[in-house]
Amino acid sequence: MEPILIDVPEELHTERLHLRLPRVGDGVAVAAAVVASRPELQPFMPWATDTYGDADGEMWCRRVIARYFLREQISYSIYERATGEFIGGLGPHRIDWKVRLCEIGYWIRTDRAGNGFMTEALNAVTAMLGTIGLRRIEVRCDERNLKSAAVARRCGFVHEGTLRANVLDAVGEPRSHMIFSHIVTEPV
Ligand SMILES: CC(C)(COP(=O)(O)OP(=O)(O)OC[C@H]1O[C@@H](n2cnc3c(N)ncnc32)[C@H](O)[C@@H]1OP(=O)(O)O)[C@@H](O)C(=O)NCCC(=O)NCCS
């Protein structure tokens, strides 16, 4: 089937979270969460710059809405059900519908970290991806990013290896990426 014809859920519900596609107008909430989490995001997310603001948040929302319809990227915004607040995002990008693989990235607002929310969200998205025909789900993270690696391991992803000096960080220094994968036929 042509990827654009594949039906992909626009929202997912878990015990404590509501995951949904970004909407036009969400950019202010996204920017507030990024600004509140800058010290934790900056070492690993080059887009979380010192000048990140409302327009950046809004451009992000509009770009991922467009990519969703092309089935190039599926980015969910994460809302805490107890408060209704936006607390982060996750979802697959680098989707190869032919090989049936993708890579998932994620981030959480710092004041909501340490509650298992990302583990809950990643488990839900991973399970959904199996239902729309994807088979291999990757998480790639800097070898210093122990919290990200812990989320992947907690969700049953297997560390396949580490690519040495395969990326540059925000200041142009070489960094090594750990590669984790989950094959959807494997139990989580
Ligand atoms: C990576 C990141 C999303 C991890 O967030 P997190 O809140 O630590 O992840 P989880 O939601 O799985 O929470 C796990 C923590 O909650 C605790 N926890 C509490 N209740 C829990 C529950 N019900 N289930 C699982 N863990 C629970 C765990 O013990 C763990 O605590 P610890 O960090 O003290 O060991 C966050 O550090 C982040 O946004 N970093 C910056 C961006 C980034 O690096 N993204 C990844 C790029 S590849």
Describe the protein's architecture and organization.
Strand 4 and strand 5 form a beta hairpin. Helix 1 (about 25-35) packs across helix 3 (about 55-70). The protein is built from five helices and eight strands; from the N terminus they run ββαααβββαβαββ. The radius of gyration is 16 Å and the shape is globular. The protein has an eight-stranded mixed sheet with strand order 1-2-3-4-5-6-8-7, sandwiched between helices. With about 190 residues, it is α+β, with helices and mostly antiparallel strands. Helix content is about 30%, strand content about 30%. The mean pLDDT is about 95.
Q: Structural class of the helices, strands and pairings?
A: alpha+beta
Strand order of the largest sheet: 1-2-3-4-5-6-8-7
Largest sheet descriptor: 8 strands, mixed
Percent in strands:
25-35%
Q: Total number of β-strand segments?
A: 8
Shape category: globular
Compressed to H and E, one letter per element, the order equals EEHHHEEEHEHEE
Name the poorly predicted regions.
Answer: none
What's the helical proportion of residues? 25-40%
Helix and strand topology:
Elements: E1 11-13, E2 17-20, H1 27-36, H2 38-41, H3 54-69, E3 76-80, E4 86-96, E5 101-108, H4 117-131, E6 136-142, H5 146-154, E7 158-168, E8 174-183
Parallel strand pairs: 5-6
Antiparallel strand pairs: 1-2, 2-3, 3-4, 4-5, 6-8, 7-8
Helix pairs in contact: 1-3
